[in-house]
Amino acid sequence: MVRRGAGIIAVSLHDVEPATFERCALIRDWLDDLGVDRVTLLVIPAPDLHPFHDRRPDLAEWLEERSRAGDAVAQHGFQHRQLRSGRGRRRGEFVGLDGDETRRAVLAGRRVLKLAGVQPRGFVAPGYAYTNALRETLATTFDWWAGIGRLHRADRTSTRAPALTLGTSSAVKRWTSPAVVRLGARMSGDLLRLDLHPADLDHTRCVGAVESVLRGARHRSAVTYDQLAGATSH
After folding, report:
1. For residue range 100-130, what is the model confidence (pLDDT) as tens digits?
2. Distance CA 214, CA 31 (A)
3. How many domains does the chain have?
4. DSSP category for residue 63
5. What is the pTM (predicted TM-score) of this model?
């Protein structure tokens, strides 16, 4: 149970997979240096339809080590692909799938993680793109799932948890999002939730924003989403 009112920070590291493994390990060490001793690692089970542990057995070993050290591992979609609509717009991995297709994809990803020795309690959809079919599947499969603004539990309760996220997909986002994250951190209440992606470390302004936020949050206790899911609902 997480004590509300104690001042907590929940950091998640997205897009953990073979192609990003070295960068993710570097970010995780960097977070330790900045005083964050608990992180939620969001693992893509089968990028390009290949089980992640077949390509990088050392990634599975690292996840096991991180779990023993106190981190949580959550499922991050199935293969994290982004499809394009007829108008060329990107849509989330589960958008457009029916209930059976959604359930098959979620359960296939969970099997991959379990075969790698990972027992995920939670799920985060790529791009926070949830559908009704996905929510229904998650309610019977995981203890929790996280959206951009709340952390939801299988018992239908939820905790308000707005995520601060850096944007790196365009020059405008790389310029503006660090300032937004800094401001959001200053305005956060009892809970500060911070999303990180492997690409964030490629941009000086993003790195500086994260360091500033985490130095200002040293009085907070770091928690995982697994721990946050045990907190009282709000």
Report:
1. 999 999 999 999 999 999 999 999 999 999 9
2. 8
3. 1
4. H
5. 0.92
